[in-house]
Amino acid sequence: MEHRLQEPRIATHNVRIYAQCGILLASEQEPNNTDNEYHANTALPVASPHGYITYEMIYRYCSMIFIIHSQEVWSLFPLLQDGLPGRVLHHDRQTLLRPGNYIVLRDSDQKQISVQLTSEEAPRRVRTNDYTTRTQGTKERDRLQLHLRRSLCERDTVCAMNTISAFVTSPDRKYRGLEAAHVFPVSQLAQWNRNHYRRYITDTSPAVDIGDSGLYSPQNGLLLSKNAHDVFDDFLLGVDPDAGYKIVVFGQDIIGLGGTCLKDSARNGTNQTNRVSPDLLRWHLRMCVYRNMKANAEPPPLWEDDLGSDDMGQILEQPDAADRMEVELFTRLGGLVA
Fold this sequence. Notes:
Helix content: 25-40%
Largest sheet: 4 strands, mixed
Number of strands: 10
Structural class: alpha+beta
Strand content: 5-15%
Number of helices: 9
Radius of gyration: 21 Å
């Protein structure tokens, strides 16, 4: 391969997947031996420092973002130092992916194949601390959220990803530091309805408990520590239900969380109607891949929590005003349509 290889936007991405012409298609970060040293002596579950993404997983993630118009079968090959492809990577569920450069070629003869990247993007989420407008919708949303948190506390009891929620706790505050996280964001109600995702909620609880949409069902929730909740909402942390509910970290894995598994309580629930939906976890994981692995993905503009006194005016001045407005309206009035 004589073409110069394009560098990834994130320099720490050490798995890089190229087209024949040297154009970067996808990249991600596999842990190095030193990534987990910080928590080597803690009680936190530590995954293998040598990585946890298998060949089967990387093929599946690439399939989420690759568009190949022909019916030809493609495969991944490691790029050797001389620029030639090595042995094909088989769809193996056991063999772990190693850091390095890879190339997408036609499976039959290792020739060039045309690959485009999907234009799909992960939705943006906004967190607001504005409680000045206590509308009926806001109060109703808060009531639904409180019911969800209680359901998740009863189901999971601790962080579903086994992260530390608080350094000090007490019997009367045993859920200190734990938050109810939505797998599918409640602010994206239009997309939820448009794609008929309600079918993934088999919870038969009344709408007064989970909302008409079902978005406040524990099947769309995980009990997480605040830190885990933040990165989960930012699509930097996902769960792969097709790989044993393995936790996948899209970034530098400081505590070695990647490769561990979601707690059994969330996976199995106390019954079939409150276990987290594997289909919604697949949706969330796909958004993680869009946000972090796709080579042409741009970092989303930062949505500040505090817009100032003229909220509406400042939103309309932003280039993504429509997206922000949809999220803001649901954040403030969501209870009326949940």
